[in-house]
Specification:
Length: 232
């Protein structure tokens, strides 16, 4: 069984040209054609905190369903985190994960039935700018995941970690896999590997990288990252 995962900080759909263009973000999502996508900064920050990608746009222009956990009536996300799951896969459970934080941050965990009786766990997150807090947040995510029934798990998100394998990433269990995706930030001239896809030991990584295209280079200040993972 092969599943393609992606993570994308969409910056509230505001591109490097200063334009808010949800349809451009949707076009990048269609380019990637991943099965499961974690979005960060998916809601606007002020006012009614409306979804940066309107629900009708997701429904009519993509093959995705939105994991149902939003902080506001007009939003689509939990502390900016949203999960998109391809139709045909069943979202069987969704819950927030409380993170120790200095600034508003959160994580979103979903269990997804992917066919043939298999269930996987997906966690989307946007971690703190401060290294010490990122360490504690990764510990909190792992502790939360460990409370559920064992199943293959993938952590997706903007980890705000510039180190390739060090820094706060050392808070991860040593058997978790950190495929090298490449540098994703800033989109115009990437310097930092801030966006990550991390897999539990059950997975085998078949391909991984940054999605670069004419659209993704301007649609947000982050480039999206992708990984194709396989289960035995």
């Amino acid at each position: 069984m092969q599943i393609t995962f992606a993570s994308y900080n969409i910056r509230k759909a505001v591109g490097l040209d200063g334009r808010r263009d949800p349809e451009r973000i949707v076009a990048v999502l269609r380019e990637m054609d991943a099965d499961i996508v974690a979005l960060q900064e998916a809601d606007r920050r002020f006012g009614r905190r409306a979804a940066a990608l309107p629900g009708h746009l997701i429904e009519h222009a993509t093959d995705y369903q939105i994991a149902p956990l939003a902080m506001t009536a007009d939003g689509m996300a939990w502390h900016g985190n949203a999960l998109l799951v391809r139709r045909g896969m069943a979202i069987t459970a969704v819950r927030p994960i409380t993170l120790p934080m200095l600034e508003p941050r959160g994580a979103l965990c979903a269990e997804v039935s992917v066919g043939a009786g298999a269930t996987i766990r997906v966690v989307g997150m946007h971690l703190c700018l401060t290294g010490l807090h990122r360490w504690g947040q990764l510990r909190a995510v792992q502790a939360n995941v460990a409370t559920g029934a064992p199943c293959p798990t993938v952590l997706l998100g903007d980890f705000n970690e510039w180190s390739r394998r060090g820094g706060s990433l050392r808070a991860l269990r040593p058997d978790w896999q950190l495929p090298w995706l490449g540098r994703s930030y800033p989109a115009g001239a990437p310097l930092g590997p801030l966006d990550r896809i991390i897999a539990s030991p059950e997975w085998r990584c078949l391909a991984a990288g940054v999605h670069r295209s004419a659209l993704s280079a301007v649609a947000s200040d982050h480039l999206p990252v992708m990984a194709r993972l396989a289960l035995p």
